[in-house]
TrEMBL record:
Native organism: Aequorivita vladivostokensis
Cofactor entry: FAD
Keyword terms: FAD, Flavoprotein, Membrane, Oxidoreductase, Transmembrane, Transmembrane helix, Tricarboxylic acid cycle
TM region positions: 12-32
Pfam families recorded: Mqo
Pathway(s) per entry: Carbohydrate metabolism; tricarboxylic acid cycle; oxaloacetate from (S)-malate (quinone route): step 1/1
Top-level division of the source organism's lineage: Bacteria
Name of the protein this chain belongs to: Probable malate:quinone oxidoreductase
Family statement drawn from the similarity comment of this UniProt entry: Belongs to the MQO family.
UniProt gene name: mqo
Length: 504
């Protein structure tokens, strides 16, 4: 990426952060209007080193196939799948956009970032088995979840994930679901690909080692963006009609400096992650699946343990986790003062309310931080019975900042999703939160472009462009099941994920 060229004085759009969100927004906007003048700024010396980096996230193409936190059980025992439907539809739009890029030869080989890896939910115990059975039955009623399988049969699970069934007691009450269309995505590689396209096809370089220090309003409705060149210490000022803050954990501190009332009340709760990484090739080759368990009582939704096949740096890997940690940093390469600096008069009630109403979460994090290697291995052995400690190493994953927002009843609530905060006129936008983040980036940016450019987005030209890039961008899947199936099949073929590899 480029940090040597001169930064100009005025831009249509400035993106703070060199991750998947800025990359998606910039590329989509350039594909719609190549004349847009865009500046992308990244504080580190390379793009995609924080949350977008492959080792720093789960790499799951979040489709709600296996993530049981998207399908809570109601008090009457029924299963609410409304969030699952939404997340799945959002990820399908991402696949449509990626397919468009492959078809138009912007991306030569989709295997560089996406692979077919079946998605499974796996549970233990009578109550959880009953829950999963109801979950699958409810989900199969909808076109995006057709083909989902459910079994309590150990022999069938032996075919699905043999590593997990080795040495397992035949009397255990377990069950699993399976969706062949599951995917594993290297979002770091995808981000770098986006930026290469921007640089080579649209003359839009990324300026690395450049940090946005502040954003102030100007009299002409533009924003004055104050930038620091971290290599030379030079201070740079430039104007922007629109500013997007897509800086991961760094988004909240920057948003707090912006003079818009919509930012008030927002806070952040940082959570770090850790993975157990298998170091034995023989074991890695025995598992080809993403298998998600159910979060324990009192644990946050993002703590669902899962045993994942991953493709990173051209190699197949096997990861288990995540294990939660606590750090006051908002970024992996951030400052231990980040959390304390984020506490402002307007968000103190929100922060206190979240702390007071989430004592079990605090207890859970303390327990996680105190875990040693053998403690983590015992958790893994629920999935892999004969796992040996020397076959697995610990790797620190990414840093997440969960959203804290105002709540009239509780003072504040802790949100486990992704949220866009924007000014009334849409001239400044910021993305807060974590999972399912990268998986739903395309849908987020379609919506963002509509409230950032409301008049242009309603023109026939822009609507045509959206339809070219994302055929179902404005359509409900349930209303167009046959069209959805056709487009999904086409995307699977284009992305080479239509035929999952055979099990070893």
């Amino acid at each position: 990426m480029n940090s040597s060229e001169k930064i100009n004085e005025h831009y249509d759009l400035i993106c703070a952060g060199g991750g998947i969100m800025s990359a998606t927004l910039a590329l989509m906007l350039k594909l719609i209007d190549k004349n847009q003048k865009i500046l992308i700024l990244e504080r580190l010396d390379q793009v995609a080193l924080e949350s977008s980096a492959a080792w720093n996230n789960a790499g799951t193409g979040h489709s709600a196939f296996c993530e049981m936190n998207y399908t809570p059980e109601r008090e009457d025992g029924s299963i609410d799948i409304s969030k699952a439907i939404k997340v799945c539809a959002q990820f399908e739009k991402s696949k449509q956009f990626w397919s468009f890029l492959v078809e138009r030869n912007f991306i030569e080989n989709p295997k560089t970032f996406i692979h077919a890896v079946p998605h499974h939910s796996w549970v233990e115990g009578e109550l959880n088995v009953a829950f999963l059975k109801k979950r699958v039955a409810e989900m199969k009623r909808y076109p995006m979840f057709e083909g989902m399988q459910f079994t309590e049969d150990a022999a069938e699970m032996q075919k699905w994930f043999p590593l997990m069934m080795t040495a397992r007691d035949a009397t255990e009450k377990i069950a699993a679901s399976r969706m062949e269309l599951g995917t594993e995505v290297n979002y770091g590689e995808l981000t770098r690909t986006y930026f290469r396209i921007l640089e080579e096809k649209f003359d839009t370089p990324v300026f690395t080692q450049h940090e946005v220090e502040d954003v102030d309003p100007e009299k002409n409705d533009d924003w004055l963006v104050k930038i620091k060149n971290l290599a030379t210490k030079e201070k740079i000022h430039c104007d922007a009609e629109h500013v997007f803050i897509g800086a991961g954990g760094g988004a909240l501190p920057l948003l707090q400096k912006v003079e818009i009332e919509e930012k008030e009340g927002y806070g952040g709760f940082p959570v770090s992650g850790e993975w157990l990484i298998c170091n034995k090739r023989e074991i890695i080759e025995k598992h080809h699946a993403k298998v998600y368990g159910k979060a324990e009582v009192g644990a946050p939704p993002m703590s669902m343990p899962h045993l994942d096949t991953r493709y990173i740096d051209g190699k197949r890997e096997l990861l288990f986790g995540p294990f939660a940690g606590f750090s006051t940093k908002f970024l992996k390469q951030g400052s231990y003062l980040d959390l304390f600096k984020s506490i402002k008069w307007d968000n103190i009630p929100s922060m206190w309310g979240v702390f007071w109403h989430n004592i079990p979460l605090t207890k859970y994090l303390i327990e996680q931080v105190r875990m040693g290697h053998e403690d983590r291995m015992e958790t893994l052995r629920k999935f892999v019975k004969n796992a040996k400690s020397h076959d697995w190493d610990l790797k620190v994953a990414g840093q997440r900042v969960q959203i804290i927002k105002r709540d009239e009843e509780e003072g504040g609530t802790l949100e486990f999703g992704t949220e866009v905060v924007h000014s009334k006129d849409g001239r400044i936008t910021a993305l807060l939160g974590a999972s399912p983040g990268a998986s739903v980036a395309v849908d987020i940016m379609v919506n963002l472009l509509h409230f950032v450019y409301p008049l242009k987005a309603e023109t026939k030209e822009w609507q045509r462009k959206f339809s070219e890039m994302i055929p179902l961008w404005n359509q409900e899947i349930e209303s167009n099941p046959e069209m959805f199936k056709k487009i999904r099949a086409q995307c699977s073929e284009t992305l080479q994920i239509n035929l999952p590899p055979k099990y070893i």
